[in-house]
Amino acid sequence: MHPGVRVAARSYRFLRRTLVVGCLLTAAAVPAAPPAAPQAVRPAAPTETAKAPPATVLRMLQMNLCNSGRAACYTGRARARAAEVITAETPDVVTLNEICANDLTVLSRVFQTVHPGRTVVAAFQAAGDRPSGNDTRCRNGQRFGIGVLTHVPASATPRTVYAGTHPTQDPADPEERAWLCVDVDGVVLACTTHLSASGGYRIALTQCDHLLDAVLPTISRQAGHLPTVLGGDLNLRAGHNPDVRSCIPPGHQRLDDGRLQHITATPDITLCCRTLVPMHEATDHPGLLATLTIDHSRRPA
């Protein structure tokens, strides 16, 4: 395991297979690493005025590539189009749904070219396969699931990957839906998920409720009250029954692509400047691009 990476095991039915910095890491069931020892901070002189740290601005891109090879929306062109979008838009965080493991490897190389001098963090989480008790597979035999791409200053920068499966699943669907989060340089917790598409979408609503009300707040507190952003195909819409807004906690912001993809953020993050990026029919979802402004002054001491 890379010395700068900690994979946190928690009580959310974790699947401990994570791809970090372009390498596939299989983590054994180990307890979470203890928090780092606090660093001494020079107190301000009496004549100094304490200043809040500046805000951090990041660009985030959500894409569903429909690249399993099994779904009707598969075209075989989605990965190439995703690479073009990453090159053109230069996002700081990319959340990916319906990808094969090698898609993340290829796209991480593209991501590195638009962030030279930075260290790319690439995390992958496979969806479970209930009949086999293993991972869901793409038609090409690779593991099928979700991913996150981001970058940090150096290879030694500590970062933690959190991943698991939702406790509520559709018993008629062999695919067990998962979630994934990356602690980005102690600045933001960047997460993704792909929720259930069956069961009248009520299962997706239950998964959304649990993720946003229980899982992500718990991880954020354990990581030092990190601002948290979630991008993903939630398979829920605003203004429909069930309504995606019913699982968004009070004070959180949300942007969507007009259909099923959403970006949600905790109150210490401002979302703006939604852009729908054409995928030229390479997949059945547009890219969803947003700007995050993270207000560090609202983070608890």
UniProtKB/TrEMBL annotation:
InterPro entries, per the entry: Endo/exonu/phosph_ase_sf (IPR036691), Endo/exonuclease/phosphatase (IPR005135)
Swiss-Prot/TrEMBL keywords: Signal
Domain (Endonuclease/exonuclease/phosphatase) ranges: 75-285
Name of this protein: Endonuclease/exonuclease/phosphatase domain-containing protein
Source taxonomy: Bacteria, Bacillati, Actinomycetota, Actinomycetes, Micromonosporales
MF annotations from Gene Ontology: catalytic activity
Pfam families: Exo_endo_phos (PF03372)
Organism whose genome encodes this protein: Micromonospora inaquosa
Signal peptide region: 1-32
Keyword Thylakoid: no
Superkingdom in the source lineage: Bacteria
